[in-house]
User: Fold alkaline phosphatase from Brachionus rotundiformis.
Amino acid sequence: MDLKFLVFFNFLSLVFGYADWSEDEYPEKWYSNARDNLEKLLSRKPNKNMAKNTILFLGDGMGITTITAGRILKGQLKGRNGEEEVTNMESMDNVALSKTYGIDSQTTDSAATATAYLTGVKTRVAMIGLSGRAKIRECSPQLENYKVKSILKWAKEAGKSVGIVTTTRITHATPAGTYAHTSYRNFETFDGKVFNLTHQQNGCKDIAAQLIDENSYIDVIFGGGRRKFLRKEDRDYHEWNKTGERVDNRNLINDWHYKMEQMNKTHKFVWNISDFENLRPNQYDHVLGILAWDHMKYEADRVVEDYIDEPSISEMTQKAIELLSTNPNGYFLLVEGGRIDLAHHNSNARRALEEFVAFDEAIGLANKMVDHEDTLVVVTADHSHEFNIGGYSKRGNPILGLVDSIEYRELSSGGYTFTSLSYGNGPGGLKEIRNRNLTAKETTNIDYHQESAVFMEYETHGGEDVAIFAKGPMSHLFDGTVEQSFIAYAMAYASCIGPFDRNSYPTCEFERGA
Ligand SMILES: *[C@@H]1O[C@H](CO)[C@@H](O)[C@H](O)[C@H]1NC(C)=O
Ligand SMILES: *[C@@H]1O[C@H](CO)[C@@H](O)[C@H](O)[C@H]1NC(C)=O
Ligand SMILES: *[C@@H]1O[C@H](CO)[C@@H](O)[C@H](O)[C@H]1NC(C)=O
Ligand SMILES: *[C@@H]1O[C@H](CO)[C@@H](O)[C@H](O)[C@H]1NC(C)=O
Ligand SMILES: *[C@@H]1O[C@H](CO)[C@@H](O)[C@H](O)[C@H]1NC(C)=O
Ligand SMILES: [Zn+2]
Assistant:
């Protein structure tokens, strides 16, 4: 089908929906669905193998509402009702709930949570790779004693290859959780303001410098954020009118090259999509791909009239798996769908849900590429958002559209139309009561901000539990309601690394009775 026609058709289904569910009227449809499900569950045997490889997919801000609404959008983009769609994450074998609170916070952030699910230790909000004995923004020699190691480091110590894929800056909280130790997530670069000479003299190092100076063992990195690595006087490679932010006279990309040469490692820095696409397995020991000046683009904005200058999250995931798979000892890979969160902060459900669909596609692709006999795939979120879905919409009602129910057109108290999706707080908030009707055309627009109860410039995170999905060796450990920090611990047990390596825990490989 012609692409333009497909886009037009998708637009129609986004605005007007689709409503044929006639086969659902027959009991046999539901018995047959249940029978299939039952057979799947009855034939399931726990996989007690050692996980040679582990992939952790982290949907930043991907609460359960985002999964439900994203699933519906995914189905509707295929011209279906949407509610019955099966996402790649939900078709994985095991599921659990994760309690996301931080030690000092009911509703938490991506730094404290990354520390939890990557190191196995909960900490304070805004801190990365340090236990809660450290204080926020603290810079002192004490910090050395509070460092906690991430599963990426454990995997490297076990001789595995390790990689990071993110759609945000590679110095942002989630990817930094794999390699950095910092008392403040915003110490991303030496900008002389948020992070300055005083911080450095007191023993702190900015996150970008930590990546280059102390974590050069990482095999593959794909994400954005060149501005954090370049000096104020360095022009960006691609966005010519932009420069870096560093004022410590260090161009960290040059420093990376120098460091790799010192280590006699074959290496490649890539900043553009053509160099990215040309990367082949076994070509280089280390690949540093910083593919955007800032965060990478939203999926919804990535392809503009056939002009593409950044790879998709699926392309980065595929490339990372290909490059990492050459190690006979296996690999650990973190893949972050990092901009679901950022779109939600703008109360921009359409971009958030399109990010979700792209993230779910990357999961589907990875699940096709790997062998779950030896590869554990875990999908989770760090925290939720104040994002809601409801209003008695009828089946197949466009998820980004107006509430339209079976019996009558639901209207707000003023007698006005409203949307199925809304936010508890955020920039779409009602500074005053809205006294006009919304139209479906405006609510499905790419820039529409769903309405909120409380007006705020920046919508906040949500505090409820998030889901963990898993498939592969020991995936049955993901069961029940668990502390978020259990995720790192369970993944380490599945591959007998870190606290479960041969020296610390010699029975790991044998006690599971594989
Ligand atoms: C660095 O920033 C801190 C505040 O975070 C300030 O107290 C200090 O004076 C600054 N140091 C320099 C050298 O600018
Ligand atoms: C920088 O360049 C981009 C296009 O590459 C343009 O859209 C933007 O307006 C420019 N900004 C400034 C400050 O010149
Ligand atoms: C790198 O190679 C050079 C020349 O072969 C050698 O002198 C040096 O010790 C090597 N460095 C490391 C870190 O292996
Ligand atoms: C990509 O980067 C390489 C290395 O800087 C450069 O040689 C090449 O021309 C770039 N390609 C594009 C399409 O910008
Ligand atoms: C708003 O829409 C509802 C439902 O379509 C309609 O009944 C009502 O008259 C509209 N109000 C205005 C002010 O257009
Ligand atoms: Zn956030």
About this structure: The longest strand covers residues 161-169. The chain has a mean pLDDT of 94. The two ends are 49 Å apart (CA to CA).
